[in-house]
Amino acid sequence: MPLLTPPAYHTPADARAGLGCRLLPWARLHFYRLAIPVLYRGRRQALNGEFNNQVFAERAEDILRAVEYCGAKVHVTGIEHIVNTAGPAVFVGNHMSMLDTFLLPAAISHYKGVGFVLKESLTRNWLMGPVCFAQQAITVGRENPREDLAQVLTQGVERLSRNHSVIIFPQGTRSATFPVDKFNTLGVKLARRANVALIPCALKTDFLENGRWLKDLGPVHPERDVHIAFGPAITDLADQRAVHEQCIAFLRARLGEWGVPCVEAE
Prior knowledge:
The protein is an alpha/beta fold. The protein has helices spanning 19-23, 27-47, 53-69, 79-83, 99-108, 129-134, 145-161, 186-194, 240-257, and strands spanning 8-10, 74-77, 89-93, 113-119, 138-140, 164-168, 178-179, 197-204, 226-230, 262-263. It has a single domain, classed as Glycerol-3-phosphate (1)-acyltransferase, CATH 3.40.1130. The protein is 41% helix and 17% strand. The strands form 2 sheets. It has an 8-stranded mixed beta sheet, with helices on both faces. Strands 7-10 form a two-stranded parallel sheet. Helix 6 links the parallel strand 4 and strand 5 (138-140). Helix 3 (53-69) crosses helix 5 (99-108). The protein is globular and about 55 Å long.
C-alpha cells in the first residue's frame, strides 16, 4: 500500500527522531548513512532490470523515512490531484535541493509512471546513472537552450504517448529561493503539445541544503520541515501565458506560506 495516499500525508506530530539521531545528534551523518544504501539498492535494482514504478516509489519512501529519522516533519498535500487526473501529466515545480528528485516519486509513482527532465551529467553518475536510465529520464545539456527545448518536446511527447508522466523543473538549477524570472514555460509547452494535464508542484526541501564544495552532499537541517504541495490539474492549455501565470501564482502562494522568498527580475 502506498505510504502517501490522498488527500495528504503528514508526519505524526508526536514523531521523534530515531534513537541514533537522539544519541548522536549529527543529522548529516545519519541522513547519508541511511540514504546512500537506499540509492545503492536502487542502482542494483536498475542494473538487474528490476526497477519499475513501484520500486521507484518504495526507494523514495525509504528516503522520506530517512528524513523523518533525522527529526524533520514531512508534509505532502494535494495527492488527490494526481490520483484524480486521468492519463499521464506534466508536473512542473520549483527546484530547491536534490531532495526534490528523491521524494517526488513517493507521491507520484504508485499512481503514475514518471521520469524527470535531468541534466545529462547525472546519467554518468556511478550511483544514480542506472536509475536515470531505468526511469526513462529526459536529459539536457544546458549549453544550447534551443537544442534542449527540442529534446524535451520530442522525447517528452514520446514518453507521454506511452502513458509515462514527466517532471520538469523549469528554473533549471537548484535555488533556496524561487527565481520567478527563471521559471520558464517549457512544462506548459510540453503539456500543450502532448495534450495532457499540467500539475504544478511547490517544494520546500531545504532540509537538505546544497553543499558548498560538493553540491549533492550538503548539510542537513532537521529543524526545517519538508513541504510538497500539488495543485489542481490544469487541462485548458489554450492560453499558454495564462497557464504559466497560474502555475507561478500557485507556487507563490504555497512558498509564501512556508517562508520561501520569491525573487523577481530586477
